[in-house]
Design brief:
118 residues, mainly beta, 4-stranded antiparallel beta sheet, globular
Length: 118
């Protein structure tokens, strides 16, 4: 398993941008699919984006396509989520996750809070 630490959350106005980072420790970072999930207040956790081990394949929830970008640097053991044109309903705790696939998550970060005000 890998240990994951997110950073970069905060407060932003609607239409603004934030860049989340997730630093991973442990071996074979490149062997993991890396994902971002989010959990809005009072709601279930939902998938946001994923990137393959090599970084060559990405997958996004329909609600964020064209606005969010996931990327990774295996030399730095880091994955990022660039979020543009944020909406108030995207106020959530954002979690970084690692696994063999999107549905086989083995490690979670502690989460970072994003608040989008209207």
């Amino acid at each position: 398993q890998v240990q994951l630490v997110e950073s970069g959350g905060g407060s932003v106005q609607a239409g603004g941008s934030l860049r989340l980072s997730c630093a991973a420790s442990g071996r074979t970072f490149s062997g993991y699919v890396m994902c971002w999930f989010r959990q809005p207040p009072g709601k279930e956790r939902e998938f946001v984006a994923a990137v393959s081990g090599s970084g060559g394949i990405t997958n996004y929830a329909n609600s964020v396509k064209g606005r969010f970008t996931i990327s990774r640097d295996n030399a730095k053991n880091t994955v990022w989520l660039q979020m543009n044109s944020l909406k108030p309903e995207e106020t959530s705790v954002y979690y970084c996750a690692a696994g063999r696939t999107i549905t086989q998550i083995s490690s979670w970060g502690q989460g970072t809070r994003v608040t989008v005000s209207s």
